[in-house]
Amino acid sequence: MPGMAIPELPSPDGLVLRPLRGVRFAVDDLAAVTSPPYDLISREDVQSLLDAHPNNVVRLILPGADQHRYAEARETLLSWLHSGVLAVDDLPALYVYEQSGPAILLRGLIGDLALSDPLKRIVLPHEDVMPGTVADRLALMRTTESNLEPIFLLYEGDGGVTARLVDDVASTRSPLVDVRTDDGIDHRLWALTEPAELDAVADDLRDHQALIADGHHRYATYLALQHEHHAEGRGPGPWDFGLALLVDSTAYPPDLKAIHRVIPGLPLEEAAARAKGAWQVHEFAHEDEALTALASAVGPAFVLAGNGPTHLLTNPDPVQVEHAMPVSRSARWKSLVTSVLSEFLLPKVWGMEDDEESVRIVHHDASLAIRMARQQSGTAVIIPPLSVEDVLAIAAEGERVPRKSTSFGPKPRTGLVLRTFATG
Q1: Which segments of 181-288 are extended strands (E)?
Q2: Is 340 helix (H, G, I), strand (E, B) or coil?
Q3: 339 and 244 in contact (C-beta within 8 Å)?
Q4: Residue 166: CA count within 13 A, CB half-sphere
Q5: How far apart are the first and last CA of the chain?
Q6: What is the spatial distance between Cα 252 and Cα 96, in angstroms, rounded to a whole number?
Q7: Residue 361 has pLDDT above 50, yes or no
Q8: 77 close to 146: Cβ distance less than 8 angstroms
Q9: Contact indicator for 334, 325 with CB cutoff of 8 Å
Q10: Which residues pair with 177 in a beta bridge?
Q11: Rounded to an integer, what distance in angstroms lies between the CA atom of residue 257 and that of residue 306?
Q12: Residue 314, Cα to own-chain centre: how many angstroms?
């Protein structure tokens, strides 16, 4: 009713990851029905995933572009549950998850993360989100009544009880799932169901904080959906939790990579010319030379590439940069290369915002960003990665880095464990 107060949301006093009855694919070729996280899938990748298997999880997480797409995802999910393509595990479990491959080893726990009041600072976001993406994920989550892929959380567990249990399980027990995906990464899964083990994990995690490494938009969606349900008077329920992978960053330090930009509407020659009023602009005949110079640059620096010579931007005018920065931000935040990008280079030098309409995102792969820029006669902005120390320090102080500043990895594979509200 209008004017009715929203009931106080349930909020734990500590970090809680509870068991769930996981929803998992029951098909012969499990690798073929999984995918990368939704925001790493290009338009071209969608068709390749569908060609790999008609039941690929991309049908659920990226169901299409028309107005009925969310309903179609719901009907597909229900159909797969009814036909046995998806099956619900008999017992609630925390799932030990391992990724391994060349220079990669990650182990953690997948379970139901209890959503907490942001003021309690149990779960720490470190990155801003875009309202349009949250609205899209919210519509999908609301319609399907499910969490289709886990967010990725890090906590400093110092290799404690949980990390030791995860390692013992992965080293001594037979997995439920053991598959290699087409990127050469092995994925294994075990189910923890014994009450004594689950209690030990709960006791160990309670006094910790967790940093959102990947999945800020999905976590914002979890919170938005929780508020919706409680505003409607539904009370406590599965919407008070969200699917998450929790990793002890002491035992398994994260890999932090950059997220590059491609600006189709900005020709490279124009981008470099307009930068000269505020930056030192160095020209290179070969992009590899510019990228090498970027890796050793001190202070904010970017590589601009596309059709023509490659350029390295260094040593921005400190007066212009400081004038562009929000007064309320900390000195550490202002020094971030992505803050300089979003507050100065894009809006002040080039007259545009770092938004979803005018700027495309490319995770990790500088060569792909440059190819895209050339195909579109635009400019690729190659960005060095932030440091883990800066990200953790900024999150601990309650600030957030600009959107799409960080890409922690290795990211969990989508499709190994799903969660529905009916079973959660």
Answers
A1: 186-192, 210-214, 241-248, 255-257, 259-263, 280-284
A2: helix
A3: no
A4: 28
A5: 28
A6: 14
A7: yes
A8: yes
A9: yes
A10: 189
A11: 21
A12: 29
> What phi, psi does 99 have (nearest 5°)?
-115, 135
Contact between 126 and 401 under an 8 Å Cβ cutoff? The reply is yes
- At 39 the three-state DSSP class reads helix
Structure tokens at 72: 């179609």
Q: What is the DSSP letter of 279?
A: S
Question: What H or E segment, with its residue span, contains residue 202?
Answer: helix 195-205
Dihedral sign for Cα atoms in the order 86, 61, 221, 261: positive
Please give the DSSP secondary-structure letter assigned to residue 116. Answer: -
Query: At 421, which amino acid appears?
Result: F
| 263 touches 379 (CB < 8 A) | yes
**Token couple for 129:** 């989100």
> Rounded to an integer, what distance in angstroms lies between the CA atom of residue 99 and that of residue 110?
13
Q: Which of 353, 340, 334, 347 is nearest to 302 (CA)?
A: 340
The residues, any chain, with a CB within 8 Å of residue 356's CB and separated by 6 or more, are: 130, 132, 133
6-65 tens-digit pLDDT: 456 667 889 999 999 999 999 999 999 999 999 888 888 999 999 999 999 999 999 987
Task: Give one word for 377, left, alpha or beta, with left for phi > 0 and alpha for psi -120 to 50.
Answer: left
In contact, 378 and 267? CB cutoff 8 Å: yes
Could you state, in order of their start, the residue ranges of all structural domains in the chain?
A: 17-255+409-420, 259-384
pTM, entire model: 0.84
**Helical residues (DSSP H) of 145-191, grouped into ranges:** 161-172
Kindly state the tokens that stand for 239: 């919407």
- Give 86-124 pLDDT, tens digit per residue: 999 999 999 999 999 988 999 999 999 999 888 888 999
Residue type, 232: E
Q: What is the rounded CA–CA span in Å between residue 260 and residue 404?
A: 9
